[in-house]
Amino acid sequence: MKRLSRRGLGTKALAIILIIIIIGGVAGYYFMAHKGKKKVGPGEDVITIGFTAPLTGPYRDVGQAFLNGLKLWASKVNSQGGIVINGKSYNIYLKYYDDKGDPKETAKLYKKLIEEDFADFLITPPLGNCAFQAINVAEQHGKIIIDVTSGDQIFQAGLKYTYQIATPASKIFTPVLDLAKSLDPNSTKIAIIAIDTPESRGMASGIKIWAGTNNYQVVFEYYYAPGTKNFDSIARIVAEKSPDIIVGGGGIEETINLVKALYKAGVRPKLIALRGGPLTDEFANLGNLAVGIMGVSEWESVATYSPFQAKKLNATWYGPGVTEFTVSYEKAYGIPPTSTAASAYAAGLVLQYALEKAQSLSSSDIEQVLDHVRLLTFYGLIQFDNTPELHGLQIAHEPIVVQWMVRGGSMVKLVVAPKEFAVAKPIYPLPWK
């Protein structure tokens, strides 16, 4: 038998080693590329939905409600056999992190969700500043992301992968201002006091446009940093401006402190409408100061969306009804759902519809469905702008206006606008003495 030379043996050994390295590298790449995408159970395929939420810090209540909504949606989908695509069932796997309400942390975490966790689709966190960062990261990576916040200025940049389910910020206070004008056309001075976020800026731009076309005047405009506790100096300036209408909003602690400071400074507007704080049950702790204050909400459990309305609106009815969602949420968590919880569930619902309709996991196929969808859900009407200029902007959803009142000796929130959903006549003017 012919003996191999030492040189020949070395060459063959080197070739074998190289083959082993290549095979190992390919296997390693395959493992990393599919990490987090499979196996929530034996033989089960999953669709990974990535997101962050402020689970600690001053906005933890908002974050927990958001997480609850998504968990409830995923649980229902999985309990019913998952999402079936071309005969194959996929369970929903939620991959999420605590962003602490920090936009910088949010940007890092969404990059991690995409590059390390291999999330198939994304949902923004419920805070505007954080959502802005999440959207930027998603767009850079070509990932579809459902936006649950109302910032709309970012859509002017020509986004491709972002789809907004909430009412755009520039439109959010239109029902309040229309209501104020109908109640008292002589109340023409508006003050804006809001948390400093991109959606607050968008909100203000819409208010200014409305004011300009209705002969109203914005006499004061101020944006405060998240977590602000003392509003005394701001309230004194507002008192000097004597606004008829105050609009804005922020977190529960911020809005409670703002209302106290305004009253203490002698501010006596005819109407106050705020986002955020007044929508929570904790706001009732203000007692008589809360009576008459309005909250602007993307969703309330008293809404009457139905399959019948879907036909009238030329929309496709999809998902659970308002009562079914509300009851299932209360059963799961022991408390009523908030607008934030509803928006989270609705975000999942929109993705679920798109996946089922497309019968594909391809982003381009999902985009085609979302670009032409017109849904009526328990959350309301949903339709996206599909022009290149404002692609993904919400164009159908309308907010609901609630107002704190006393009924039977208890503080309650009742819907006062829009008219088709109103259950009570608004208190006007604000009964501050």
Helix fraction, binned, reads: 25-40%
CATH architecture of the largest domain: 3-Layer(aba) Sandwich
* Mean residue pLDDT: 89
Domains (count)? 2
Can you tell me the CATH class of the largest domain? Alpha Beta
User: Which topology of the largest domain does CATH recognise?
Assistant: Rossmann fold
**Separate helix tally:** 12
Which structural category fits the helices and strands?
alpha/beta
How many E-type strands? 16
Order of helices and strands: HEHEEHEHEEHEHEHEHEEHEHHHEEEE
Query: Hey, roughly how much beta strand do the residues contain?
Result: 15-25%
In this structure, how is the largest beta sheet organized?
Answer: 7 strands, mixed
